[in-house]
Design a protein that fits this description.
Elements lengths: L2 H6 L7 H10 L4 E2 H11 L8 H13 L3 E7 L5 E7 L1 H25 L7
Antiparallel strand pairs: 1-3, 2-3
Length: about 120
């Protein structure tokens, strides 16, 4: 990978990956590689989730009961684990999106403060 392109990639805030995985699974069950490719495509290559981050996050989401996993055949006829969003995961996604909106608003207020008229 060329150094300049690497520098323009975005670093994920801690906890943001979970929300992005839940969002991706809202579109239907997917295996890990498909999740990472969808995140990459949806971000226009700005986000690349490495295996070392993706699978621990998926296991964490599964432990929370927000995703369910099952073994199945992939499009390439390989045995892979497909993840799907659970009803609890859908509720969590709504909470995470709300928190994200609040965070964006707060940070936006800090970056572009309104000046008091005086």
């Amino acid at each position: 990978m060329e150094p300049r392109r690497y520098q323009t990639r975005l670093e994920l805030l801690q906890g943001t990956l979970d929300m992005l995985i839940l969002q991706t699974l809202q579109w239907g069950p997917q295996h890990g590689y498909a999740i990472s490719q969808n995140l990459r495509a949806q971000s226009k290559d700005a986000l690349q989730v490495e295996t070392g981050s993706l699978y621990p996050a998926l296991h964490r989401l599964e432990d929370q009961g927000w995703v369910k996993a099952a073994w199945a055949q992939s499009e390439a006829n390989q045995r892979v684990k497909f993840y799907r969003l659970t009803p609890r995961g859908k509720q969590q996604l709504l909470r995470e999106r709300d928190k994200w909106s609040q965070l964006v608003s707060v940070i936006g207020g800090i970056l572009a403060p309104r000046r008091a008229k005086g």
